[in-house]
Amino acid sequence: MEDPPTAALKAVTLTHVRYPRGDSLGHFLAWVSLIPVFISFGGFISHFVFRRELQGLCFALGLIISQVINELIKSSIQQSRPSSMCAVLEVCDSHGWPSSHSQFMFFFSTYFSLLCLINGVGVSSPSSRRIIALLPWPSAFLTLYSRVYLGYHTVPQVLAGSTLGLLLGAGWYWIVDTMLVDFFPAVEESAIGRFLYIKDSTHIPNVLKFEYDNARAATKKPAKD
């Protein structure tokens, strides 16, 4: 009796990361490649649970749109990943141009930097804004390097992804800051906005101090009563 044919398996390439056994740098860069996953599931979910800021929700929406665009381009261009490594990495059935990891990180870094420099993210000091704006960029360039080092992409593929991410990040920030921001008050006052406590704090110069002062005031008030 013949065995039934085995169905072809396909890996989820966003989390499917391999590195050469015994390669410490490769091991480190494999973790670097997972930064988009940490940002998506750790950063934005935590942000929604604890902050519920409209600017953060728009940020997350932009990243989702960026990744949809990435998949549409990949399925249209259908450029293969590096042939020398795709069989070993089990990614020959997926496409490599443009790199989604590079696009994600450059979109994230561009939007985050513009948000810091223009809106301030609740920090009033210009020097502090500039320092905070630089924070995601080392991870972005490390992610770009990791995808080439580990054999998942060619240099043109990661450059295409990073360029597209930068352009989409800047373009989406412009859309949010000049168009969507006008709808923030209506969203805050809507039934779902009130139910989920969705808010916009970008107009507050120093959100950390504002919340700290209000939290302390709320703590002291019962004692006075």
Automatic annotation (TrEMBL):
<dbReference type="InterPro" id="IPR036938">
    <property type="entry name" value="PAP2/HPO_sf"/>
</dbReference>
<dbReference type="GO" id="GO:0008610">
    <property type="term" value="P:lipid biosynthetic process"/>
</dbReference>
<dbReference type="GO" id="GO:0005789">
    <property type="term" value="C:endoplasmic reticulum membrane"/>
</dbReference>
<keyword id="KW-0812">Transmembrane</keyword>
<keyword id="KW-0378">Hydrolase</keyword>
<dbReference type="GO" id="GO:0006487">
    <property type="term" value="P:protein N-linked glycosylation"/>
</dbReference>
<dbReference type="Pfam" id="PF01569">
    <property type="entry name" value="PAP2"/>
</dbReference>
<dbReference type="InterPro" id="IPR039667">
    <property type="entry name" value="Dolichyldiphosphatase_PAP2"/>
</dbReference>
<feature type="transmembrane region" description="Helical">
    <location>
        <begin position="28"/>
        <end position="50"/>
    </location>
</feature>
<keyword id="KW-0472">Membrane</keyword>
<dbReference type="InterPro" id="IPR000326">
    <property type="entry name" value="PAP2/HPO"/>
</dbReference>
<feature type="transmembrane region" description="Helical">
    <location>
        <begin position="104"/>
        <end position="124"/>
    </location>
</feature>
<keyword id="KW-1133">Transmembrane helix</keyword>
<protein>
    <recommendedName>
        <fullName>Phosphatidic acid phosphatase type 2/haloperoxidase domain-containing protein</fullName>
    </recommendedName>
</protein>
<feature type="domain" description="Phosphatidic acid phosphatase type 2/haloperoxidase">
    <location>
        <begin position="54"/>
        <end position="173"/>
    </location>
</feature>
<dbReference type="GO" id="GO:0047874">
    <property type="term" value="F:dolichyldiphosphatase activity"/>
</dbReference>
<feature type="transmembrane region" description="Helical">
    <location>
        <begin position="131"/>
        <end position="152"/>
    </location>
</feature>
<feature type="transmembrane region" description="Helical">
    <location>
        <begin position="158"/>
        <end position="176"/>
    </location>
</feature>
